[in-house]
Give the backbone structure.
Amino acid sequence: MNQTLYGTTVKTLTVNDIAAMKQRGEKITCLTAYDASFSALCDAIGIDMLLVGDSLGMVIQGQETTLPVTIQDMVYHTRCVARARQRAFIIADLPFMSYPTPLIAAQNAALLMQNSGAQMVKLEGARVEIVRFLVEQGIPVCGHLGLLPQQINQLGSYKVQGKTTADADKILADAHSLQQAGASLLVLECVPAALAKIISQQLTIPVIGIGAGVNCDGQVLVLYDMLGIGVDKAPRFSKNFMAYANTISDAIAAYQLAVKESQFPSSEHSF
Ligand code: KIV
């Protein structure tokens, strides 16, 4: 797929291009994006993947959690992001309660893939049957394990997951199950770096960390956190790249370089 914007034609990355980066040991960079301007900026700097995350509930809408975000919100923001990117691969979150059954998940994923420009959908938890069904319909899926923000009312707080041997074993087993079900990518949020390293080594699909240490195949951060403009205090695993930059472009470029060269996250931003 090629995208032409302002007269220039650029090849858009595919799921195979992302998989090939893991194969050749190239770190994969990802940032969240919710609008056309930041999409174009991240894309021009060379960020490999843009995640239209349901974190937009907090950073765009000012909600306390991701739970109020609707599939219509995700469609709107995915369209805005897709319109402005050329090269970056686009993943869109399936929001809370948009995947209670395989069929409803597929219908909502279709809204993101067919009408909005997403190339992959992401869903939280070891929802193996849902993943298998989506993949059978031709929908690439990114799993999400570790801290699951959509389960905040069960968790009680946003805390590191997989600290006990039993919890770590469960996350490792779930990661294998998601890969087995056909997931093409896995996000690991807020888990000990040692666990994320084992999962990244054992899985053949790329593992993208957020608060999961430097040994993942790639990294993702919430854009507003890494620019220091989030409404709430940024989590410990994030880093304010604006603190060392004169412009937003410089901050995003510094993040891109730090991830590609395995300089981010350092132990200060890991568990
Ligand atoms: O919604 C989001 O931004 C996410 C990231 C935290 C991975 O899912």
The mean pLDDT is 96. DSSP finds eleven helices and ten strands in the chain.
